[in-house]
Amino acid sequence: MSTGIKTRSNGVSVCGWGEGDTDYAHYHDTEWGMPVTDDVKLYEKMCLEGFQAGLSWLTILRKRENFRVAFGGFEIEKVAGFGDQEVQELLNDSGIVRHRGKIEATINNAQAAVSTIERYGSLAKFFWGFEPAKHQPAQKLSEIAAKTTESEHMSKELKKLGWRFVGPTTCYSLMQADGIVNDHLTQCFRHPEIEVARKVAKKSI
């Protein structure tokens, strides 16, 4: 059975899911798993994870710059003020995923994010509050969960705060992508780099 690790021509070992496409490889090598503590970036990632539901992440990744333009750089207070006119403009924007429910959820979640920040001080403090006390590093792909007790708890708390499209699998994808957990396989060259970055990032929260 494959462990999910691939070895590149230069001898570097990487998570296999990041191979086969240059956009995916760049995302794996430079972004996925890097700890994020900036509220705008955390909000953006949660919104894009919501748009990804039922689609491939590669589809969203290739449209990400279009999403950023369409949603005003994902500035939380700006998106929170979007109304019917902006919704219609977004539905007419072929550069993004034109799904009314997901568009309206993104606006709703900006409004919920404002309330979350008021209550917790920052989105970073809220999201990183769900970092597991102990996370077992994965040596093979089959050991990586789709959701965890912590992501289920995060999902429940977000829904209480009024967020939408935030199921436990979506929440765990956020935790993985933004470094709240390190799910690069232990043999991947990024795993130790992410661990160092996580220790530094947590000091700033």
Features:
mainly alpha, 205 residues, 10 helices, 2 strands, Endonuclease III, domain 1
Provide the domain count.
1
Pairing-aware structural class of the strands and helices?
mainly alpha
Number of helices: 10
Order of helices and strands: EEHHHHHHHHHH
Average pLDDT value?
Answer: 96
Q: Which residues sit in consecutive blocks of at least 5 with pLDDT less than 50?
A: none
> How are strands sequenced across the largest beta sheet?
1-2
Question: How would you sum up the major sheet?
Answer: 2 strands, antiparallel
Summarize the amount of helix as a percent range.
40-55%
The CATH topology is: Endonuclease III, domain 1
Large-scale geometry? globular
Please identify the top-level CATH class: Mainly Alpha
Number of separate strands: 2
CATH architecture: Orthogonal Bundle
CATH 4th-level superfamily? Hypothetical protein, domain 2
Rg from C-alpha positions?
17 Å
> Whole-Å distance between the termini?
40 Å
Strand content: under 5%
